[in-house]
Amino acid sequence: MHKIVKSGAALSTLAMALSAPAWAQDAIAPVEATTSDNEIIVTAQRREEKLKDVPLTVAAFNSAELERNGTTATRDLAMLTPGITIQNTGAALQPTIRGVGTTIVAGGAESPVALYVDGVYIASQNFAVFDLLNIDSIQVLKGPQGTLFGRNATGGAILVNTKKPSDTFTGKIMASYGRFDEVRGGAYLSGPIAPGIAFSIAGYYRDDNGFTKDALRGTDLSTYQEYNVRGKLLIEPGEATSITLSGDYGRVEDSTGVSIRPIGSGPRAASTVNSPIPTDPYKLALTFDPFAHSWGYGGSAEIQHDFDGIVAKSLTAYRNTDHRSFTDQDRVVAAVNRVNVTINENVFTQEFTLSSSEPGPFQWLAGTYYFDQKDFNPTLSNGTLVTEARLKAKAGAAFAEGTYEVMPQLKFTAGIRYSKEKRTISSRRLATPTMAFNKAVFDAWTPRFSLMYEVDPQSNIYFTYSKGFKSGLYNSTTFNVPAIKPEKIDAYEFGVKHSSNAITANMSIFYYDYQQLQLQTRSATGLAMILNAADATIYGLDADLTYRITPAFRVRFAGAYTNAKYGSFVNAPFFAPANAPAGGNIQFTGDATDNPLVRTPKFTGNVGVNYDRELANGDKLGFSATYYYNSGFAWTVDNRSRQSEYSLVNAEVSYTLQDSLKLSVWGRNLTNTRYGQGVSVTAFADAIAYARPVSYGVTGTYTF
């Protein structure tokens, strides 16, 4: 704890330094957020505020920043946001923020990093990977968000906001071609239909042949195909009332995370006597094509009315998601163990809120929330039904939070949420045709308290305590077992924020007491099993700095240090190579006490450069580059399977004609770094899915 105290003193010193006259030059004045992308507006506290006025760590990117860095999807966020890692397991997205994440992919399983799109909670991990052409902003909220965003936000939240329908006709058309025959295309159109009624519609398509080959059959693996469409209708019958109707449909066919190859030195590994698997890391030897397909649709209705200072809002949403995967678990060419998993999920949510809308010393919000989820999750091994589970979850919550200006420079925020959830499971398996039924009820209080002090109009310091709760869960691939316990987390954070015309700087230190972690491991046959791990202690530091050297030239630096270790964990699931002709792994329990948390590098950081120059004829020349560093991390709790340190470089050069037609040449992973996007360890073998190697291409965008 003494390290945290020392770091807190350093942050206080930094706050004074940033507010000193050396930084506060006479030419620098506060910038209105509506006129410059220097000041980013965020909604981390469920109301629009300047980033520097929010007492928690937020990495926020508006549409201009995202476009400069070639970011169009949630999977790209790790390049821009230190302290977060993202594992892409097929069509599932699993972010880990400051050591808090999940390894569980099963029916009813939700991420502890909550994903929201236009205010709607996306419960399924299997439809969290998507590209959108009309993204307005993405916000990454670090730390528990249990008060305002509720259950399953112990690690943080990712808020994706798409553009609102406009009252003038605007649009964009995009086409791109890249290595591996990657073809991308999309279009966005928005405009008025009648007075007080406007629409928007966006569509996206991507297809590529993959970067992995089957050495036996010559077929393409690690292929990717996606298409989606999203529409909005905005109705404003009066100045105080707005109705937004949204609908979307999408499909993702992604085999990159399931095209895995054995690693290590056993008989199932590459280039050994009993295996024809080639030594080329981008070649496999299979007798089938593994796949992970997800598709789904959803709709929402948001109704908002301002009653002279009090805004009432209702947000109703429904989503249906289907997921199918077919994977190799035995790691040999012969069809020994192929697992087919199906997850069908239906989710209905309803939220009502009341909030203050007039400026004043006291800002508040209160609301209720309802969540209803149904999952159907059959699992087959070699075409034979192993387990079949039907899971239901119903949850309700009431919450309130207020911020009071105690004195002109000091604000105090207090909030509380009560959540209660009931989960049920009915399951059967081939060996026991009788159905088993179990139910469990979980509840929790999740408060938040913050103090923020304004050092000067451009700098703030703050302290925040928050609590997070992730409900218990049933294991859908085992039979008649009790639910695992909920996760809980107590978080303490102290930070400093500064924003001016030239400089944006943020730094925070944090300490987490993380309890009853939920963990996934594998059975001897490769089926997923979930359990509660030990408690954990996490502490670290986040920092970022953006320096606008000129209006056309900016550089940014960001870094994160995270120390995350398990507490007493003497019965952890371990795997070790078997000393046997058949190879494989021996599964046993071991002592993982003080081992690092999975998918949590100690150091991550990035350096970015953006240059946009307007030429004499009105055209624009642009250049952007990002360097990313990851110090490496453990894939498994036994710390045996590890990702070594690696670096990535992305870059883009663009030319824009009269603010309309933009032509870009881009490169991703320009150093051709080989690293994993996912690892699977079972009794059969260790296996890895490599991330995409160097890729490059051209993109044309027409905006009107």
Automatic annotation (TrEMBL):
It is found in: Cell outer membrane. GO terms for biological process: iron ion transport. GO terms for cellular component: cell outer membrane. Residues 239-670 form the TonB-dependent receptor-like beta-barrel domain. InterPro entries: Beta-barrel_TonB, Beta-barrel_TonB_sf, Plug_dom, TonB-dep_rcpt-like. The keyword Transmembrane applies. Residues 1-24 form the signal peptide. Keywords: Cell outer membrane, Ion transport, Iron, Iron transport, Membrane, Receptor, Signal, TonB box, Transmembrane, Transmembrane beta strand, Transport. The keyword DNA damage does not apply. It is a multi-pass membrane protein. Gene3D superfamilies: TonB-dependent receptor, beta-barrel domain (2.40.170.20). Residues 51-157 form the TonB-dependent receptor plug domain. Belongs to the TonB-dependent receptor family. This is TonB-dependent receptor. It comes from Sphingomonas crocodyli.
